[in-house]
Amino acid sequence: MVVATEEMAVYCFDTLVAHYTGEQPPPPAFEDGNHPLFVTWKKGANGSEPRLRGCIGTLEPRQIVSGFKDYALTSALRDRRFPPIQSKELPTLECTVSILTDYEIAEDYLDWEVGKHGLIIDFTDPDYNIRRSATYLPEVAGDEGWTHAETIDSLMRKAGYQGTITESLRKKIKVTRYQSTLYTMHYGEYVAYLKKNRGAAPSISGVPAVNGH
């Protein structure tokens, strides 16, 4: 099984840094393959809990080298929930790469474990008779402190449903659960990696040097 690695997170930072410098990122230091994947950017400052800054990926298998390159930029610059990440924010960023595995159809909306399973929900909006769907990665429910029902209700809102959420509607939802392997790297760790493996930190105008420790 392919697992998320340090090198995958480095490649996402390389890709974002190259976007700001106008250069090509170095080639990735990991093998290609075909897997569903996500790239998540969070921003932390002054020791506060990191806040989501962008998260986009694919639930369908795709080549992971091109996938991480595409979604590193898409999640950083084109997540509609947030303004594009600016280069001056780099020192506050952390990147999480996720590779999704073990897709299973759940028996109902309660048939999954908080912290272990990510969720894909599919349901028919009773007000407009249209299909709606949304996903949360495995870490989301635990990070938010949500129960099973709170997670499902939040996913329904994420999917665009604005009507009343009832128990009978929850029971009609098709839930697919999945697991993931992930790796999280802070910008300071990225800089330390570059110094150790390439002998130099990235040089970006307007971005202060960051100590790796």
How is the quaternary structure best described?
single chain
Number of domains: 2
Biggest pleated sheet: 6 strands, antiparallel
What's the number of extended β-strand segments?
6
Describe this structure in words.
This is AMMECR1 domain-containing protein. InterPro entries: AMMECR1 (IPR023473), AMMECR1_dom_sf (IPR036071), AMMECR1_domain (IPR002733), AMMECR1_N (IPR027485). Residues 1-194 form the AMMECR1 domain. It is a single chain. This protein has helices spanning 6-21, 64-77, 138-144, 148-158, 167-171, 187-197, and strands spanning 34-43, 51-63, 93-105, 118-125, 130-136, 174-186. It is built from 6 helices and 6 strands; from the N terminus they run αββαβββαααβα. It is elongated and about 60 Å long. With 213 residues, it is of the alpha+beta class.
Write the layout of secondary structure elements.
Elements: H1 6-21, E1 34-43, E2 51-63, H2 64-77, E3 93-105, E4 118-125, E5 130-136, H3 138-144, H4 148-158, H5 167-171, E6 174-186, H6 187-197
Helix pairs in contact: 1-2
Properties at a glance:
single chain; 213 residues; alpha+beta; Glycoprotein, Type 4 Pilin; 6-stranded antiparallel beta sheet; 6 helices; disordered C terminus
Quick recap:
InterPro entries: AMMECR1 (IPR023473), AMMECR1_dom_sf (IPR036071), AMMECR1_domain (IPR002733), AMMECR1_N (IPR027485). The protein is α+β, with helices and mostly antiparallel strands.
